[in-house]
Design brief:
Layout lengths: L5 E6 L18 E6 L3 E12 L2 E12 L3 E5 L6 H8 L9 E9 L4 E2 L5 H7 E4 L10 H11 L5 H14 L3 H4 L12 H13 L5 E5 L7 H14 L4 E5 L3 H7 L2 E6 L2 E7 H6 L4 H7 L5
Parallel strand pairs: 5-10, 5-11, 8-9, 9-10
Antiparallel strand pairs: 1-2, 3-4, 3-6, 6-7, 11-12
Bound molecules: adenosine-5'-triphosphate and magnesium ion (MG).
Adenosine-5'-triphosphate binds next to strand 4 and helix 1.
């Protein structure tokens, strides 16, 4: 079920604005713009090919604003492929091709047709394996800000602290900001990567199995974090863990062999799936 059309406070994404100004973040340009059906994005008949191999087949998916949408499905069904369309990672490799659209609101522009560099500034991604840069903790979080042209030290300091607090890592690293990111535990590194993704204040964050390399305690921390972040930022998360999807997501989409089989409220998908294939998958009978 989709929320009705509703006005939300929305920040325009003027990436060229006033670098170095502490208020030059996305929250400065607030205006009230209605999002269609409360969606931040709408995938419409999206197909994708790796060369001659078609990995997505006319996929449709609404992505509700500031909620968590989980993507589930067996290995090879196209979850990561779909996620990577959202930040145009595929454009880094020759021979890849899109057809269809990802409408991004409220601009109402086709995400797969605009400048990939701009898309990556607006949509952050966190991967399965923590991948901090071989730099200090501070430099990792500041990296995305510097790309945006923010250079003033006091502004960087403030934004780095804010992102680290947001990622529930500040207290653990505040006395070692200049230490190497590689000196952190796996769970801390993943929260650092989340802080790095959060620092430029993106419209959406994509998570591709962000906890599969972590122990249960670190996993619980990331799950808490994802839930806290929803409400502020729109989240699309791939997970193989059905309990995780049901714990942390508001909406769930089930994919099979490049196709979108079912989408709905997480409670509904897990308790009363409409498609028998969804039922088989979530009850562990295939995949
Ligand atoms: N770089 C690539 N070149 C060619 N085919 C690819 C490439 N990456 C993925 N594929 C194919 O596209 C399909 C979808 O792969 P994708 O990685 O999106 O699956 P997934 O659902 O994320 O699986 P997993 O759960 O194992 O991560 C698979 O058949 C895969 O073999
Ligand atoms: Mg994958």
């Amino acid at each position: 079920m989709q929320p009705n059309l509703r006005p939300i406070t929305r920040e325009t994404t003027d990436v060229s604005s006033a670098p170095g100004d502490s208020n030059a973040d996305l929250h400065r340009h607030q205006e009230s713009v209605p999002l269609p059906h409360g969606n931040r994005a709408d995938v419409r008949k999206l197909s994708f090919w790796y060369g001659k191999t078609q990995a997505l087949k006319e996929v449709n998916l609404p992505v509700v604003d500031r909620k968590v949408t989980a993507l589930i499905g067996p290995s090879g069904c196209g979850k990561s492929t779909l996620l990577r369309c959202f930040n145009r990672m595929h454009d880094l490799y020759p021979g890849n091709r899109y057809d269809g659209e990802i409408r991004l609101y409220p601009e109402d522009e086709n995400l797969v047709a605009i400048d990939p560099g701009l898309v990556r500034l607006r949509i952050g991604m966190v991967f399965q394996k923590p991948n901090p840069f071989p730099k200090s903790i501070y430099a990792n979080v500041a990296a995305g800000l510097e790309v945006r042209g923010i250079k003033k030290r006091s502004v960087l300091d403030e934004r780095v602290e804010r992102a680290l607090r947001h990622a529930a890592l500040w207290d653990e690293v505040k006395d070692r900001l200049n230490g190497s990111a590689y000196g952190l535990s796996g769970g801390q590194q993943q929260r650092l990567c989340i802080a790095r993704a959060l620092a430029p204040e993106p419209e959406m964050i994509l998570f591709d199995e962000p906890t599969s390399a972590l122990d249960p305690l670190a996993t619980a921390k990331i799950e808490d974090l994802v839930q806290q972040l929803a409400g502020e930022v729109t989240i699309l998360i791939v997970t193989h863990n059905m309990q995780q999807a049901s714990r942390i997501s508001d909406f769930t989409a089930f994919m099979l062999m490049g196709e979108m089989v079912e989408y709905g409220n997480t409670d509904q998908v897990f308790t009363a799936p409409e498609d028998p294939r969804t039922d088989q998958y979530i009850t562990g009978r295939f995949g």
